[in-house]
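Suppose a colleague, Dr. K., hands you the sequence of a protein chain of 170 amino acids and asks what its three-dimensional shape might be. Before reaching for any lab equipment, you can write down a predicted structure in token form. Begin with the sequence itself:
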Amino acid sequence: NIDISTIATEAPQLLVMADFKSQTPLMLVAEQGDAKLVEIMIAAGADPAAQDYRGKTALHAAIVKGHKTVIEILLKHPECATKETVLGETPAHSAALAGDAGTLEKLLSLSPALANATSFHGTPLERAEAFLEPDVRREFSHFAKQNGAKIADEHKIRACISILKEYTSA
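The predicted structure, expressed as tokens, is then:
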């Protein structure tokens, strides 16, 4: 019976190998929400800041899927907080769209500049405000169903908007 500690000892290169989309095992485990395995893999040498072909990290995936414990583990590695996708989206963009005010506050406390990070689609504040538009929500709802993402209700999005306004006006 082979477990992750055996793999880490006998074949540590498997923890950093990426698939054809440059996704590492850690990214896939984080997306599934297995916090214990995420901790074990990082302790064994998996890179929490690794990026796939779109520039997404394990943290981006955990935020989109709403895996709070995995997010907490990954935020122990501050280098994860500021990684940008190829479109310039940071984990703060992901948290704002997910309506995850707690994660957004933690990210901004690690790096206040994330509030003003501009992606192809705008800053986290601009993205969150646009997400309140019915057409945008409808379009994202379709995308979310296809990809297993969680859709935040308007109350949660507005809470994120309030947080972002505090950081952008400061």
